[in-house]
Amino acid sequence: MASQAVYGPLDFERLDEAEQQRRSAEFLRRMVKRRSVRHFSSEPVPARLIENAIRVAGSAPSGANQQPWTFAVISDPALKREIRLAAEAEEKDSYQRRMTPEWLEALAVLGTDWRKPHIEDAPCVIVVFRQAYGIRKNDEGQGERVRHYYSEESVGIAVGFLLAALHISGLATLTHTPSPMKFLAEILGRPANERPFVLIPVGYPAEDAKVPLISKKALSEIMLSY
Ligand code: IYR
Q: Is residue 3 very low, low, confident or very high in pLDDT (cuts 50, 70, 90)?
């Protein structure tokens, strides 16, 4: 098929190197302070911060620019409670039966368990859905499936953007993947093509929030130069 691509000029700002170094160092300094937080204050968060972070996530690259994501923002206390209870039911089963001893051992450094009060304490929970396929109306007006390419990678990248944007806005997050997550699609009434990808409580840390004392690998351990 002939290409239908329409090209226009790139809006790219060439920075002088001093400015590049300044921005790079500043971003690094801020980003390395991000921590997964499990103790939240109930203080509300400005809606605009959440919206802007989702705009940032929505700017992520995706396979064939299909943008196979939906971000459900939940601030209703009753709905958060319902999600917490359903997550805890699944997690209880996971921790007590489904997770292997090896998995539990790997998790020991984090000290997590099946209890998920943060889902209710945080003023806002974002559930990210991956659209496994798209739906488009055909000539007969019926919905038909559109294949999505690299949807896992695409949504993973968008969630990285989202977490970075929320952190840079001065908000705390937890990257939470209760397993299995199907209950989220049911509670939130999402269609069959949408698969829960991650659940992210967002808010301010509780005054006495604690985090596990863990560290990240050094550059020399993660980077190879050829
Ligand atoms: N989903 C469970 C278990 C869990 C798994 C991994 I891998 C983590 O890095 C953290 C937790 C939970 O959220 O407790």
A: confident
Q: Whose C-alpha lies nearest to ligand 1, atom 1?
A: 178
Helix, strand, coil shares of the chain, percent, nearest 5, are 40, 20, 40
Q: Is 90 in the pocket of ligand 1 (CB under 6 A)?
A: no
Range of the domain at 102: 35-136+144-188
CATH number at residue 97: 3.40.109.10
Q: How far is CA 66 from the centre of its chain?
A: 18
Ligand 1 near 59 CB (within 6 A) = no
Q: Give 81 Cα–ligand 1 centroid separation in angstroms.
A: 19
**Residue 158 falls within a domain, yes or no?**
yes
pTM: 0.96
For residue range 142-178, what is the model confidence (pLDDT) as tens digits?
Answer: 999 999 999 999 999 999 999 999 999 999 999 999 8
Pocket of ligand 1 contains residue 36 by CB under 6 Å: no
